[in-house]
Amino acid sequence: MSYINQAGDYKDYIGVFDSGVGGISTLKELVHILPNEKFLYYGDSANAPYGEKTTEQVLALVMNIVHYLVEQRVKAIVIACNTATSVAVAKVRAAYPKLPVIGVEPAIKPAAAAKEHARVLVMATPITLHLEKYQQLSKTLEEKAEFIPVNCAGLAHRIERGDLEAEDLQQMLEKLLRPFVGKIDSVVLGCTHYPFVKQQIQKILGEVPMFDGSVGTAQELKRQLQKHGLCAESGVGEVVFQSSKNTPEELALYRWFYEQDNK
Q1: pTM of the model
Q2: How far apart are CA 218 and CA 134, in angstroms?
């Protein structure tokens, strides 16, 4: 799998987008499961983070990006952002009914299934926790697990800057998570930015299981591609990075995040 910053024709590519670098954690799982595919990753870093905007603002940003990707003739779209999925995935599918559109959601179902009556910490953005989609899903599963939401305002924005070992980021995580040490069974990383700080989270909470939506999203993308006869059965995979903050430094940051080990 190689990656480049520009390509001439995106007809056979899969469009993947997020408010910034976070969706790269999902992109890596997509590449792992579909190594022959070509991916066009678009990060809206000029407008990040989405999780602290209004739903109207997020919807407008998402529809603009989707329109751009459709103009590039991508064969499928992955919304690699929990907030954008919650706000806009239904509207995107309605606007482009013939285009496979896959979203990502907080992985509270697998977290609830992993242990009976578990206490599950759900780290997410303010808008994801507030929206009805999360509220309904957590209520449906409340007999299987106790979900403890943590409003992580500012965390995605801080991760966007990189320098993940810096003291200020560690202090932010300490403030968010220290009250739950020894009191939870697992953690749901409800924003695609958060897998990049798994190790930092484990330093505080210990070796608790962590769940994110990237595997389920990749598996669903594969199913949809097979269903529509769009799978690349052979060939060399490729990743193209683009950003609304179109600078060499930003694209270099995207490549840096792509190379990080967030397992």
Answers
A1: 0.92
A2: 20
Query: Which residues are paired to 102 by β-bridges?
Result: 78
pLDDT (tens digit per residue) in 3-15: 444 545 688 999 9
Mean pLDDT to the nearest integer, 187-200 = 97
Examine the residue annotation and report whether 191 is marked as an active-site residue of this protein. Answer: yes
Domain ranges of the chain: 2-104+214-258, 108-211
Q: How confident is the model at residue 225 (pLDDT cuts 50, 70, 90)?
A: very high
Active-site residue, from 24, 62, 78, 81: 81
**CATH class of this structure's domain 2-104+214-258:** alpha beta
81 noted as active-site residue: yes
- In angstroms, what CA-CA distances link 195 with 21, 92, 200, 217, 243? 11, 26, 10, 14, 20
Of the candidates 165, 162, 176, which has an alpha carbon nearest to the alpha carbon of residue 205?
176
Long-range contacts of 222-227 (CB under 8 A, 24+ apart): 222/33, 222/34, 224/76, 224/100, 224/102, 225/14, 225/34, 225/37, 225/75, 225/76, 225/100, 227/100
Which one of the listed residues 76, 191, 210, 240 is annotated catalytic?
Answer: 191
Average model confidence (pLDDT) across the chain: 93
Residue 28 DSSP SS3: helix
According to CATH, the topology of domain 108-211 is: Rossmann fold (3.40.50)
CB 18 within 8 A of CB 80: yes
Asked if 112 and 124 count as a contact pair (C-beta separation under 8 A), the reply is no
Assess whether the region 2-104+214-258 and the region 108-211 belong to the same CATH fold.
yes
Q: What DSSP string runs through 141-187?
A: TTTTEEEEEEE-TTHHHHHHT--TT-HHHHHHHHHHHGGGTTS-SEE
